[in-house]
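Exercise 7. Predict the joint structure of the components listed below.
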Amino acid sequence: MKVLLEKLLVNYPYVAAVILFMIGALTVLTRSNLFKKLLGINIMESAIFLMFVAGGNIRGGAAPILGEVNPKSVYINPLPSALMLTGIVVSVSVTAFALALIVRLYKSYGTTDARRISQLRDEVTER
Amino acid sequence: MRDFILKRVAAIILPFICIYGFYVILHGHVSPGGSFAGGIIVGLSFIAYSTIYGIEKGRVKLPEKVLTWTESYGTLWYGIMGMVGIVKGAPFLANKLAGVDLGAPGALSSGGLISLIGLGVGIRVASTMVTLFFTMMEEES
Amino acid sequence: MIASITANLPVFVVIAPLFVAFVLPTFARRMRLVEGLVIFVETLGLVGAGYLASIVLRQKGIPIIYQLGGWPAPWGIELEAGSLGVFFLLVIAGVSLPVSLFAKGNLTEEVGSKERVARFYVLYLLLGGALAGMAVTNDLFNVFVLVEVATLSCCGLVSARNHPRAAEAAFTYLIMATLGSTLVLGGIGFLYMVTGHLNMGFASQELGRIWQDYPHVVWMAVSFILVGFGVKSAIFPLHVWLPDAHSTAPSPASAILSGLAVKGYLICLLKFLYSVFGPELMQKFAVHRILALVGAVAIIAGSVLALTQEELKRRLAYSTVAQVGYIILGFGLVNTKGLTGTLFYLASHAVIKSTLFLAAGAMLAATGKKNVRELAGVGRKMPITMAAFTVGSLGLIGIPLFSGFIGKWYLLLGSLEAGNILSVAVIIAGSVLCAAYLLPVIRGAYFEPGPEEDWKDPGLPQKIALILLVAAIVILGVVPGPFLELAKRAAAELLALQ
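Solution:
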């Protein structure tokens, strides 16, 4: 038990990423407000970014920029950060598109609640 | 009174913000940032201008045609820079193999094609941000 | 000049649609120029894919490796045009050319104004480029980027109509697809942290060496990637977004979404399972049993659900869910015949489902009705359209002389070789159910009397498109020759990776 707690404390970024991922996933699946679903997606993606960037970190390593300072012995891995820049761009695009869709849905149905929208849609098809 | 202060301060600061954005774009291979972050900063300077001075003045500075052009051709610029390598016999997106002179690492010219590609991408990102903003704002009215 | 074009062909096949997509918005007003450019670039793609296929067939299966930027393998992104890549490139080019011919002149009434049509074509070309990239890429993160491009283009295509249901279907699709992408990215992260490589070849070598030190991480990577791609390719319990999305999209978009986009994600899943994890790891973690079981359930459930649908397009959408089950079942058969059957069935389903959706779209547009019962008598008024639908249905059921039969035959052989009798029973039961939900449509269209309305066949480009697709179905069924050879080589390549 003590070993487990110690391992969890040493790997705190990954623990944080897992907790954030679970919070995001629960928000997407259980909340019916469309905005909250979108925020849940954002939280999940942030969790994955955190996991990647923490995976590239080396404790005591220097920032990977070639400068006038004496070269340290260890630089942290710059590749995951570069990959996550692409991921952040993707996340921003998805958010923008989803917001445009929410605006369109609000104009057609007058509500941003997913359950209410499916109720209204079933009423329309019954008529 | 509040409008007055905002307009005066913005008139002084926004050009510097725009130049700072271009600085971040061009120094992408030397310092953190790069094309995407720099493009966002440039776009934000234009969005701040539209917010403070009004949408119509923003539209006068960036009409729809200009925005469509910069979006399309900014991205095409990326492709054209990639083809530079193919013309010289190297694979797509080649930098050193395409005969570009990479100077001392850490200097501005050491990126070769990277800064140029970044410029195209940055302008494109800026115009996308501004287009999104204008679409959302004009939707309301 | 020609030499440099052919040497860079793997990259050109991916970026040519993207270049045209970038410049399309600037001349959105001139519709004929837009449509002409789209068809031109699709034709170039078909020619390029065919040439690559001939090179790879002549080279006896040694893949063409292309390094972006000239950087060699662990540092740079690698494109590998092997048998599998070239096979899927041919499928993509062969299906998107007829669909873009069908969309010519047909889109304005479904989508709206000219700018919207130009945007539709932009998304269409972006999707084509992303799928071509998925076929040839050999880099893990490149797969993620292309998957995201494809997802956003698909969501844009689904929301192209002005109908409120389109927006709702697109939003559901976007949320679920992004959930899938996040899971895939997580899986790629686990693989990178454990192996330290992003190149698929290097990662699989490293994984074979060190997986015993990190069994839990590899397990998590497999599950994340399986569920992530499962959501995107509509494997049975995760298929919920598909019927709404594919039935509310415009007809060319439905054809491309059901025919190609779903298959692209399945090809990525195939690459991950066989090229990165490898057949031995799959069998050690019993992934192949899970796949076979999930595939069998998907076939039966999808077909039964398709029987209950009244709208034609929804019936075809649930049929896609069932056919994806066939392909997943084939993934679980870790032998050459099974994988050949899966790949051939994937190609044949792409062509068949596009034919069915295009024909259905033409019928729905001409008659204005949506349900199967209301389409009585269509066969006599729109002969070419209904003939295309009939050929597509017979191909899907698996009648000999059409392409579906060869795929199912190899799947049956593969199941018998793997000793999986349940799969044999499910494959045959699936064919019977497929006949049960498609033949009534044909019977109603030809043999029932219909109202005296003025229903006509669609215009000339649409007829050419339907005839091209029908010809492909028949040719693949009667003389599969080189295509089947490519599929066999691809299966052998996938299994030979240790």
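Discussion. The helical segments of chain B are 2-26, 35-53, 55-61, 64-87, 113-140.
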